[in-house]
Each structure stands twice: as C-alpha cells, then as structure tokens.
Design brief:
single chain; 2 helices; disordered N terminus
C-alpha cells in the first residue's frame, strides 16, 4: 500500500535518522579489526583520500544499506564524529528499489548517541536499481534533523518541504517515532493533494499521523480547501484510504462550496465528510446544531436540525448535492426572490435536489410537520399548514409546483381591510388530505384542494364537505359531496356549494336545503308573507346568494316554509334590501291566520292557499301580487281571477302579537269567480273586480255586471254587490239607469208548514 505525503515525510525523517544507526553499526563491526594507529582516527575505520569513506551492510547476498562520505573525522573532547558530503542508500526488501538521503554535514554525539544534521537534508525515495525501470520518486527537503540512536526518534524544529506523486506539503517542526510509527507536525501544517481534477489542500495548527491506523489528527484548528469548497473546523481526524483522503471528522465545523450558479454552506458541532475517487465528496454528516444552506438566483434554502446527512453525486470529480436528510427539530426555510417565504418544521425532513444541485426537487416530512407562508408585502395573506405528512414538489427556478399533506389543518390570515374598515376574519380548514398547486411563473398558490372530512371556519361562518377546492386567483371555493355551510343566521346543505370569498356570494346546487334562523333584532312576529321572527326553511335544486346574503334565489322545484306557512315555485327570489320577493312558475302559497287575542275557545287553524304562475311581494307595503291566472282558497271560500293583490296586517305596537289575521285584504281582478260551498248550500259570485276584507269576512264585487248566486236564495245582479260570507247578509247598490235585479228562492221548509 502506497503511503501519502505525510507517510513519505515520515520515511524521509526516519531514513535521515538511519544515518546515525548505520554509523553505530559500522563502528561496532570495524573497530574489532581496525589497527590501533593512528590514534587521531577512530579505531577500525579507513580513510581513503580522493575516494572517500564507504560502508556497506549486507544480508547474505542482498545489500541492506550503503553509506558514503568524502571525509570522516573524530574528536575526543567533546567526543564527536563528523561526516562530510554524506550519502545514504537504504534498499527495499525486493532489492530493486532504494531511497537516497544526502546531507552536506552530519555529526554524532557519542556520549548520548544523538546524530544531528544542521544543514539541508535532501531525501529522494523510490529510485529503481535498474535504470530501464520507471522511477516514481518522492523528494523531501528539510534541515536541522536530529536522530536518537537510543530511541530511533527523528525530529526537526525547522520547516520541512516535500513533493511526491500525489501531493506536496510543508510544516514547521516534526517528530517521527519509528517504534509507534507516528509522525507529528508541530505547526504551520500545509498539505496539497494534486491528484484528480480538483486539488485538495489541508491546513492545521498541528498534525499527528498514526501510520498503523492510517489516520491524521489535526488540532487545535483545521482547514480543508478544494477549489470552490472550504471547510473550517476545530480539531479534526482524517482517515486515509490507499494514500488518499477517505474520511474527515471535524468538530465545530463550517464550510461552503461556491459555484457560479449556487453556493452550498454547511455547519455542525460534529461534521463527517466522506470522499469518493478524485477527492470528490460523496457524503457529509452533521451532528448537533447541524445547518445546510443552498443559495442561487432562484432563492435561499436553509436547513437546521440536530442531525443532517447530505449525499452528493460525483460526476467528473465534482461534488453535486443530491439529497439531504435532516433529523431532530428540523426547520427548512425557503426564501424565493419575490414570493412568500416558506418555513417548514418537522422532526424528520428529506430534501432531494434537481439535476445539477442548484434547485430543490422535493421536500418530504417523515413525521408530523408545519409549513408557514410569510408574505413579502402587507397586502398578501399569511398562511400556515400542519399535517401528519407533507410532500412539496418544486419546478424550475425553485418555484413551488405542488404541496401535498395528510391529516392536515390550515390557517389563513384575514385579507387586509382598508383603513377604517373592520378587519376581515381569519379562516381555518381541516381534512384528511390536501393538494395545493402553484403558478409556475409567479410561485403563488393557484389551487387548493382538500378532501375527506373537510371542515372550514371563517369568522362566524362554518362549512364542511367531502371535497373542497379553492381557486386562489378568483378566491372561489367549491364544496362537493354532502356539503354544508352555516353561520348564526342559518345554514345551507347541498351536493355542491360554490362560494366567492371576495364578495361572499354563494351558489348551491342539487338537493339544496337551507335554513334561516329568526332575526334577533325582531321583537315580535311580523304579519307578512315572510316572518323574520320565525325560522325560514327552503328546498330547491339550486340556491344563489349575493350581496352579503341579502339577495337569494331558489330554482328548480323551490319550496320555502315557516312553520305552517309555505311558498312553492319553480323560482323564488328574495331581495332583502329592496324588501322584495318574487316567485315564478307554479307558484303556491299557504299562509296561516293568527289566532285572535283573548279568544274564549280554541280556534281551528285557518289557511289561505293561493296558486298562480307569478308572485311579487313587497314587504314595505305588505302586498303580495299574484298574476297570470290566480286561484285562492280560504276555508270554504274559493276565488279565481286573472290577478290577485293580498295585503297583510301592518305592525301595530299597541296590538298584541297574536291578535288579528296574517292576511288583511285581498283584491281580485279580471274574470273574478267566487265560490263558497257548504254541505247544504252553495254561493257564487262573478265580476271583473272583487275586494275581500278578511276581518269582516266581506266580499265586494264590482265591474263586468257582477252577479251573485245563492243556491237557497237565488241570483242577485247589480253594479256593486257586497256579500258577508259569515252570514246571509247581502247588499246590492244599483245604478239609476239599471235597477237592481234579484231572484230569490222560497224557503222550502217554511212554505211546507
């Protein structure tokens, strides 16, 4: 296994120290055979003028080491051995490769076994013994090298520089312990990996390399730089793999990767970086107070959590963010340039990036979460969503595309009101599922759909349905499937309800049932066709409300009732501001007569029934106007006419609320035909016009030669015929030119006596 730059520096320092060791071995072996004279030279050593001094150590036929020096001298006080132009060759086990170490001078202190080279020391490793073989050299240059023959440690307190196949570097002060196979660089550590498309640089205050563990320990600070990528940290541990960085574990780390179109930032109390080939990062793990920030022209996304895992793709040696998984109190803040800021909170959140790592593709929560939409302008609306699970899909340029959630609740701040106007109420919803889609150009929400147990609340208004849809541009809400909407004034149920949030207008279709509760401001019942003091209920195929519920229309077999009072028609329209009610198509009304006050005996319920093609009722006049052929039935009295006007009693504060009749007077016009039937008697009246005074039970016939016929008393004609239906009274007013004509029948019972 090839070692890295630090390993090579270790070898170089160790080889420098080997000079001392070789020297000691040489002295021990040659002293035995060397002559004792001359005394000025060490015993057993030879000095050859012009050829220098050579010592060789072998193991059998293999050469282990070879030391050469041009000069060799020894002094006795203090005891020193001096070598000039020292050259050491240390051969590898295969005997085909060797390392070469050169120094101009070296000295050995014999009293403590320490060898020191004060000048430059040059080391070259990897020479091939066969010149035809390709050399893969490593060169190291330093000075002030100290070697201990007792411990084998090699050290220097000076700058050391090295260069080899994959890297270069420098440091000030170094210690190598061959027994532990550990190297320490004491300060100003600066290493460069040159292999691969992207260059790597590691800087630190101190470095400790443990060869047996293949790990490098950096402290008290560290910095890793890879072109656009920078990591700053406290203490760090680098794990090597085949001479290249495989893993970096750093404390209190923060880093960034600046690319032309995006910037990636990350930080954590404990950061782990994993590397692939070519020094490319393929994974970053942040533990405790982890943070990830991506910034581009399309916005800024910040992820904070207790733990963040980031996976990278490595095309052509690049490190491109692919996805990130955040765990523990996760917050994701996305700030687009123009649209609302989005803040997501959840315990576990996963982000996936689009190709190129510049834009977000999806954000998914694996635990319950919350999303806030913070408006850019005061006129925009604040929104918040909570869900058991949340899925967010992004389109190009980091624009929101889809938003999904399950078991969701939403909150929307009321639309800002003009100055001086009351604030618009906030709205809330809930449902089992939610899907929001967004405008790809603006990033604004375009549609919101919720289904399964949908609930809605806005001020005093409530709603529910199987499915709800909001079209944001038009602020149009559609509720379908057993839809219901209600407020303190009443409720509406239908298969489909459409609501315009801007105007409050509503359209309900299919199986419509509505209820309007009594008006709290009404102190007593009103004698009218519609009594606002009582609950009003209606049923129709379609219902439309406009102008803040002051205009209401029922269509398709419409029926409206208050207790026993009833109105039926194909279409019923109520305009509360104009105090107008119109009905068209098969109109039928049923109004009850109120009991008289202080009645001594219970009174039978009496109804007035009217049928006509059209009806127009004006509350201000208490007038119901029936047109198109009218039929009125009241007890045993029937009236047919082309038109009918019916007046109801006007309110009188002095009159008890239960006194008098609801219907006060009725005027019939056009081909009037009146019939009163009893078991033994029939009365009919005809004319162009008839007035029916309810309180007096009086009918006045005029116009078109009125005629009145009593099955017991005969026929009466005249210009004006007044008939009291509760008794036998009949009054006839004749004209001067046309005397009254009456034909009376005898009372058969009396004549037989």
């Amino acid at each position: 296994m090839r070692r890295t730059g630090w390993l090579l520096l270790v070898c170089c320092l160790a080889l420098a120290g080997a000079v001392g060791w070789v020297y000691q071995q040489q002295v021990a072996e040659q002293s035995k055979a060397a002559p004792k004279k001359p005394a000025s030279l060490p015993a057993g050593f030879q000095s050859r003028a012009g050829e220098g001094w050579v010592w060789t150590k072998t193991d059998g036929e293999k050469t282990i080491a070879e030391v050469r020096a041009k000069e060799f001298t020894q002094q006795t006080d203090p005891p020193r051995v001096f070598l000039q132009d020292v050259e050491l060759k240390v051969f590898h086990k295969d005997d085909t490769t060797y390392d070469l170490i050169r120094s101009a001078k070296a000295e050995l202190r014999t009293e403590d076994g320490v060898m020191f080279a004060d000048g430059d020391v040059n080391m070259t490793m990897g020479f091939k013994a066969d010149p035809a073989m390709k050399n893969r050299l490593v060169r190291i240059k330093t000075s002030g090298v100290t070697y201990s023959t007792m411990t084998g440690k090699v050290s220097t307190d000076r700058k050391a520089e090295f260069a080899f196949e994959n890297s270069t570097g420098s440091a000030t002060g170094a210690i190598y312990d061959p027994a532990l196979r550990e190297l320490q660089m004491q300060k100003d550590v600066d290493l460069h990996w040159t292999k691969g498309k992207k260059k790597m640089r590691v800087e630190s205050g101190e470095l400790a390399y443990k060869e047996q563990e293949s790990k490098i320990y950096l402290k008290p600070w560290s910095r890793l730089t890879r072109e656009s990528l920078t990591l700053n940290a406290g203490a760090a541990v680098v794990t090597l793999n085949e001479g290249e960085i495989g893993l970096v574990e750093a404390e209190n780390a923060n880093g960034e990767d600046k690319q032309p179109k995006r910037v990636l930032e990350y930080a954590a109390d404990q950061l782990v970086m994993r590397f692939a080939d070519k020094n490319a990062i393929n994974r970053i793990e942040g533990e405790r107070n982890a943070k990830l920030v991506t910034t581009s022209d399309t916005g800024r996304t910040t992820v904070t959590a207790q733990h963040v895992d980031m996976d990278f793709e490595t095309p052509d040696g690049e490190s491109v963010l692919k996805k990130a998984l955040a765990r523990g109190g996760t917050t994701v803040e996305n700030v687009p340039p123009k649209t609302a800021t989005r803040i997501m909170r959840s315990e576990v959140v996963e982000l996936a990036m689009r190709a190129g790592g510049e834009e977000i593709d999806t954000i998914v929560t694996h635990t319950p979460g919350e999303v806030e939409f913070l408006p850019k302008a005061p006129a925009e609306r604040y929104r918040k969503m909570n869900g058991e699970r949340i899925w967010i899909n992004y389109g190009p340029k980091n624009q929101l595309e889809k938003f999904r959630a399950s078991k969701v609740t939403t909150f929307t701040k009321g639309k800002p009101a003009p100055k001086g106007k009351p604030e618009n109420p906030d709205s809330k919803t809930s449902s089992e599922d939610l899907l929001a889609t967004f405008d790809p150009k603006t990033g604004d929400m375009s549609r919101l759909e919720q289904w399964t147990n949908f609930q809605y609340e806005e001020g005093e208004r409530r709603a529910k349905a199987d499915h709800a849809k909001l079209e944001q541009a038009t602020e149009h809400i559609t509720l379908t499937g057993t839809a219901r909407i209600w407020d303190p004034s009443g409720s509406t149920d239908a298969s489909t309800i459409e609501l315009d949030q801007k105007t409050g207008d509503m359209v309900a279709t299919e199986k419509v049932v509505s209820t309007r509760l009594p008006d709290k401001k009404t102190a007593k019942p009103k004698s009218s066709l519609i009594d606002s003091s009582e609950t009003i209920q209606a049923r129709a195929a379609k219902m439309t409300t406009q102008k803040q519920n002051t205009w209401i229309r029922y269509e398709g077999g419409a029926t409206m009732w208050q207790g026993a009072d009833k109105l039926e028609a194909e279409t019923i329209t109520i305009d509360r501001k104009a105090q107008l009610l119109t009905a068209n198509g098969k109109v039928f009304t049923q109004t009850r007569e109120r009991p008289k006050a202080n009645a001594k005996q219970p009174q039978a319920q009496l109804f007035t029934l009217v049928r006509a093609p059209e009806l127009e009722y004006r509350e201000s006049e208490k007038l119901a106007y029936y047109k198109g052929g009218v039929n009125l039935v009241r007890g045993d009295l029937k009236v047919n006419s082309q038109e009918l006007r019916a007046w109801f009693s006007k309110d009188d504060p002095k009159t008890p609320v239960d006194e008098g009749n609801s219907l006060q007077r009725a005027n019939a016009d056009g081909s009037v035909d009146i019939l009163q039937s009893a078991a033994d008697r029939t009365r009919t009246g005809k004319g162009d016009h008839a007035v029916y005074e309810i309180a007096e039970s009086k009918v006045v016939l005029t116009g078109g030669a009125p005629v009145f016929t009593d099955s017991l008393q005969g026929t009466t004609r005249g210009q004006t015929i007044t008939w009291f239906s509760d008794n036998d009274r009949l009054m006839v007013d004749g004209a001067d030119a046309k005397p009254t004509e009456s034909r009376l029948k005898r009372n058969q019972k009396k004549s037989g006596k």
